[in-house]
Design brief:
A 5-stranded mixed beta sheet has the order 2-9-8-4-5, with no helix packed on it. With 203 residues, the protein is mainly beta. 0% of the residues lie in helices and 44% in strands.
């Protein structure tokens, strides 16, 4: 039974919620409530672990190893009071976990060629390699950044990502993926990297 007075926990993914196959991801569930046990669910199904997850007071880390396409999906966590009555909290907000590699890689191109000057706008276009009647979402990734830079959609063929008034910190290697918005939440291989170089604006 759910106790509506218990605050819902938060659920986050480290290093990211978009991961390559055969990698590991940690799903961290956190609450301000003490003396609780945690549970992780994928959809409505509890996720079983051979060993007890690493937990401290008010927080637990669920380690998912050797990720496969079947690992993709919608995850939530909840907690239970250790003392009777053992009522559960409301579930956390849904966390989407994507494992890449099920679809062919898209292409990523910049509308501006060469070096970009700071404070200019940059448009990156991610395009699927084949025609499909099903709409997907697109995610723009940057090397070294844990979270996607942008997630946009739905669209069927391509998506433009606008980086407005870029700074030197926007320089780097970008890639993109596309993914299904419904089960089984399959995601493509990442595109080839596209390097964006930003030079400082002359005063």
């Amino acid at each position: 039974m759910t106790d509506e007075t218990l605050p819902k926990p938060s659920l986050s993914a480290w290093p990211s919620w978009i991961m390559p196959p055969k990698s590991n991801v940690t799903l961290q569930c956190h609450t301000s409530t003490n003396d609780v046990n945690f549970a992780l669910r994928k959809g409505n199904v509890p996720v079983e672990f051979p060993q007890s997850p690493d937990s401290t007071e008010g927080m637990v880390r669920f380690l998912l190893t050797d990720l496969q396409a079947s690992s993709s999906g919608l995850y939530t966590c909840e907690y239970y009071r250790r003392e009777p009555p053992q009522r559960s909290s409301q579930p956390s907000d849904i966390l989407l976990l994507l494992v890449t590699g099920e679809f062919s890689k898209p292409s990523l191109q910049a509308h501006q060629r060469g070096v970009v000057t700071a404070r200019e706008n940059v448009t990156l276009q991610c395009q699927r390699p084949n025609n499909s009647f099903e709409s997907v979402k697109f995610a723009l990734l940057k090397a070294g950044a844990a979270e996607p830079i942008r997630v946009q959609g739905p669209a069927k063929k391509k998506m433009n990502f606008s980086l407005r008034s870029v700074t030197v910190s926007d320089a780097g290697n970008y890639s993109c993926v596309y993914f299904l918005m419904r089960a089984p939440f399959w995601a493509s291989e990442p595109s080839n990297h596209l390097e964006i170089t930003v030079k400082a604006q002359l005063s």
